[in-house]
């Protein structure tokens, strides 16, 4: 932003910002806030989203009210809401080759027109099943209204301490989404013979997978801290953002 407005003096190195910032203000949509969460959550820095985008599930303040919102924050009129994050590690031939975090979800999916992939899946070392599908979404409650929902997963209240496993276009209808405790550790082994397969965090960070790769997902040691200006009405958000208006669109 500083470069765009010809104010290079406003630019701060990311590492210095991580160490010194007391609040991160995200200007954009949910995607911008997701990126900020991955960058700053480990420093326990609160995040405020100012919505310049469309849907705005996570962003708190519309751009038309940003002055009022920032003034209220300076006056201490806000709450902090903690959101579970997922830590992901990729092992190849018993060596760690990738390490990531996500606020919404981590997705194992085929690329392009590749055939279905086989994903041997374990929860805390207990074998669950081998998903034969286009992929698998491992979601937090925050991400339950994103890709997981499109894959048939449940809507989960953000205060719940769980993770959701939602297969993408599974080969059999008997395979359904699964909810597990935040304390569980999920392991996914990519079957042999798979074509190009991607690991994607929050729909933004990609990593190429190979046959036999092991993906481990568990709760991160820190949480994203979101600034809230008012009491958050989760179900009202569902009605307004997802169009859950019912027949008449009126409450009784």
Strand order of the largest sheet: 6-5-16-13-8-9
Determine the fraction of residues in helical runs and give it as a percent range. Answer: 10-25%
What is the mean predicted local confidence, pLDDT? Answer: 89
Can you tell me the CATH class of the largest domain?
Answer: Mainly Beta
Class inferred from helices and paired strands: alpha+beta
Q: What's the CATH topology label of the largest domain?
A: Tumour Suppressor Smad4
**Strands, count:** 17
The arrangement of helices and strands along the chain is HEHEEHEEEEEEEHEEEEEEEH
Global outline: globular
| Strand content range | 35-45%
Report the CATH superfamily of the largest domain: Probable inorganic polyphosphate/atp-NAD kinase, domain 2
Q: List the total number of helices.
A: 5
Number of folding domains? Answer: 2
CATH architecture of the largest domain: Sandwich
Protein traits:
single chain; 252 residues; alpha+beta; Rossmann fold; Tumour Suppressor Smad4; 2 domains; 6-stranded antiparallel beta sheet
What does this protein look like?
Keywords: Kinase, NAD, NADP, Transferase. GO terms for molecular function: ATP binding; NAD binding; NAD+ kinase activity. Its EC number is 2.7.1.23. One of its GO terms (biological process) is NADP+ biosynthetic process. This is NAD(+) kinase. By secondary structure, this protein is α+β, with helices and mostly antiparallel strands. It has two domains: 8-83 and 223-242, Rossmann fold; 86-219, Probable inorganic polyphosphate/atp-NAD kinase, domain 2 (Tumour Suppressor Smad4), CATH 2.60.200.30. Helix content is 16%, strand content 38%. The chain has helices at 14-20, 30-40, 66-74, 147-150, 234-242; strands at 24-28, 47-51, 61-62, 79-83, 86-92, 95-102, 105-110, 117-123, 126-133, 135-139, 162-168, 178-181, 186-190, 197-201, 205-209, 214-219, 224-228. The strands form four sheets. Strands 6-5-16-13-8-9 form a six-stranded antiparallel sheet. The radius of gyration is 20 Å and the shape is globular. The termini are far apart.
């Amino acid at each position: 932003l500083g470069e765009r407005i010809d104010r290079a003096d406003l630019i701060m190195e990311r590492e210095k910002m991580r160490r010194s910032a007391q609040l991160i203000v995200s200007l954009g949509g949910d995607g911008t806030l997701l990126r900020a969460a991955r960058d700053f959550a480990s420093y326990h820095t609160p995040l405020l989203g100012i919505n310049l985008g469309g849907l705005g599930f996570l962003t708190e303040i519309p751009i038309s009210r940003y002055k009022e919102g920032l003034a209220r924050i300076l006056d201490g009129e806000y709450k902090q809401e903690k959101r579970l994050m997922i830590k992901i590690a990729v092992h190849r031939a018993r060596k760690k080759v990738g390490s990531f975090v996500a606020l919404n979800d981590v997705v194992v999916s085929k690329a392009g027109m590749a055939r279905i992939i086989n994903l041997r899946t374990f929860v805390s070392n207990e074998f669950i099943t081998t998903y034969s599908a286009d992929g698998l979404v491992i979601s937090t409650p925050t991400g339950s209204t994103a890709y997981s929902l499109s894959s048939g997963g449940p809507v989960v209240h953000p205060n719940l301490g769980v993770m959701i496993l939602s297969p993408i276009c599974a080969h059999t209808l008997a395979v359904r989404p699964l909810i597990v405790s935040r304390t569980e550790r999920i392991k996914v082994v990519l079957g042999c013979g798979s074509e190009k397969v991607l690991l994607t965090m929050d729909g933004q960070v990609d990593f190429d997978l190979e046959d036999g790769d092991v993906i481990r997902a568990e709760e991160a040691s820190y949480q994203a801290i979101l600034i809230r200006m008012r009491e958050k009405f989760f179900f009202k958000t569902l009605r307004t953002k997802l169009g859950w208006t019912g027949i008449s669109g009126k409450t009784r």
